[in-house]
Amino acid sequence: MGRITVFLQHKMNQPKRYLITSALPYANGPKHIGHLAGAYLPADVYVRYLRAQQRDVVYVCGSDEHGAAITIQAMKEKTTPKEIVDKYHALLQSNMQDLGISFDIYHRTSSPIHHETAQEFFTALNEKGDLELKETEQYYDEEAKTFLADRYIIGTCPVCSNTNAFGDQCEKCGTSLSPEQLINPRSTLSGNPPSKKTTTHWYLPLNKHEDFLRKWILEEHQSDWKANVLGQCKSWLDNGLQPRAVTRDLDWGVPVPVKDAIGKVLYVWFDAPIGYISATKQWAIDHQKDWRPYWEDKETKLVHFIGKDNIVFHCIIFPVMLQLHGNILPENVPSNEFMNLEGDKMSTSRGWSIEMDEYIQDFVKKENGGDMLVDALRYYLIAIAPETKDSEFTWKGFQDSVNSELVAIFGNFVNRTFVLMHKLCNGKVPPLHNNLLDEKDNALLRDMASAKANVEANLEGYKFRDALFEVIDLARKGNKYMQEKEPWIVAKNIGADGMPTPEAQQKIDNCLHLCLQLTANLAILINPFLPFSAKKMCHMMKVVDKMLDWENAGKANLLKVGYSLRAPELLFRKIEDAEVTAQIEKLKNKSKHIMDTTPTPSTDASTTASTIKETIQFDDFAKIDLKTGTIVSAEKVEKADKLLKLEVDLGFETRTIVSGIALHFEPAAIIGQKVVVVTNLAPRKMRGIESNGMILMAENPDGKLHFINGDALVANGASVS
Ligand SMILES: [Zn+2]
Question: pTM here?
Fold first, then answer.
C-alpha cells in the first residue's frame, strides 16, 4: 500500500478551529426530549458535519452540578447534594451517549479542575476591579440560621394563587417571580416566615458594558444571528442592564476565593458557563493538547447551542465575562425556541414530558437493533426543530414522520435498490454504460451534486430542518427516478436464453448503478443527522466509515463497478398505532400521578389511628389543600355497604365525595354537618361514581368515627392549616 498523503484544504474564511458547546444540563433530575431538541441534537449534527469535513473541532458539555436546585432535590430525595449530582450526572451522560450525542468530553462542574478554573476567573476579574462589592438585605431563616436562596422560599403565587410557588417561579402557571412578590412567604427549611438580614456580595456591573454589547450584538452580528436571539438581546438591552450578584450565601458550590468570604459560593450562573472552559482544559489534558487556542485565539469559531431560556446568559452575561477576562467571544448562539408536547408545555415537574431516559427504556433498549429508533427520534426532533418558533411534539406526528418519510421514502429507496441489485445484477455494482445515459440519468446526477451544496449551505447557516429536508428530498427523487425507470419491467425483455436482452440489461445496469451511487451519497448526507443508519448503510455497501467524508458527497463514483455488496438490512421500522396509543396513555397517567402529590386516599374506617406516621417536612403538609365545607346531601351507594355519596358545599363550588362512613352514620343525620375536606386529592372512581376529595374523620379507640368540624362560624371554603 502506498503512502497516504493528507492534503489539508484551507478554504478562504474557514476558521482554523471550532469549539462547540451545548448548554450544561442541570444534574438535578432526568432531562426531556425538548432539551435534546433544543441544545444537544443540533450541536451534534453540526459537529458531525464538521468532523466529516476533517475540521479541527472540539465539542464540550457537562453536568451543571451547583446551585440551590441541587440542594433542594437532595432534600426531596432525603440525601446529600453529592449523591444527587453523582446519580444524575451518570444518568445524563449515559442518556446522551445512547442517543448518539457525540461530545468530545462530558465533564462536570463539581470537578476540582472546574473549581480551580472558576476561582481563577473570579479572582482575575476581582483583582482588575471589574466586580463591585455591595451590601444588601436578603431573606434569612432565623431558626435554620441561613440565608435563603429564592428556591428556598415558597408562598402563594400572586397570579394563579398556587400556594406552593417558589421564590423564583411558580411552576403551576410558569410566571417568573421574586420572593418579594409571594403572598405569605415562608422558608422551606423551617416553615417560618423569613426575615431580612444584611449580607455582602460581589456584583458584575453589566450596566457598564451596554455599549460594548450593543455594538457587538446589534451591529456586528445583526445579519448572522437568528432573529429570535437578536430580539431577546435587544429587549434586554432596551430594558437597561443591572449589576448582577456573582456570589451568594449557600454551602454548595464553588467557594468564593477571598479570605473571610465564609459561607459564600459563586452564583451558579457565573460558574456554569466557565464549565465550558474547564471541560476544554480536561479534554486537552486527556488528549495531550493545548486548550488555550480554543479560548484565546481569534481564529477559533466558538458556537454555543442553547435553548431560549439561556439566551441572556450566553449572549449578554457570559460574553461580558469573557471580554473582561480576555477570551474570545462566541461567533454565534443559535438558540432554539421551545418544543411543546401534545398541546401543552413540556415539563418534567408536572409530568408532562418524555424524558430521554423513558424513550431509551421504552424504545431503544426494548428491542434488538434499537439504534434505528434512536435515529427515528433524532429524525423527528430535527424535522420539527423549534428553530424559529415554538414547535410541538405529538406521538401521532412522530409516527407519521417516521412511517411516511423515513420508512416510505428513505428506507424504501435504499431497500429497493439493494433488492433489485441482488435480483437483477448478481449482487454486484453494475457498470455504467455512458452511451445510454439519458436526460433522467443526468438530472439525477445533477440532483446529487446540488443536494450536497444545499445541505452544506443550510448546515452552515444552522438551518438543520431545511438541511434534513434536502436529504429526504434527494431520496424522494431517487424513488421517482426508479419508478420512472422501472428496471423490474425492463427485465421482462428476455431473449432466447430467458435472460434480459443485452440492451435491457444495460438499461438495468445504468439505473441500479446510479441508484447505488445515490445510496452512497445519501449515507454521507444523512450521517450527521442519523449516524446509526449511515453506519448500517456502510456495512451494507461493504465500505469503511471513511467513505462518509463530506468531500465524497456529490460524487457518482463512490462504489466500484463489480464490487459485491451485502444483502439489504432494515434501516427503519414503522411505528405502530398501539405504540402511539400506549405512549399517550402513559403520558396522561404520569402527569396525573405526579400532580396527585397527596397520599393514597383512605376511606377505610378500620385504619388504626394510634400509630404515628413518619415525619414529613412542612413542604409536604403544605401540598395538601384543606378547606371547610357543609354536607348538603347524602345517600347510600348501591351495592356498597360502607359508602355514602355526599355533596359538599365548599363555598366556591359543590363537590361530589364518596366516603366510607355508611356503617357509622345515617345519611339523613349528617346533612348540614360541617366538615373539613382534602380538596386537591386526585379524582377517584368508586362504584362508578367519581369522588373529588376526602372528608377528614377522627377515629376513637373504640372504633367510632367523628367529624373534624371546628367552629360552626367558619365559612365554607375557608382554608385549614
Ligand atoms: Zn402561579
Answer: 0.80
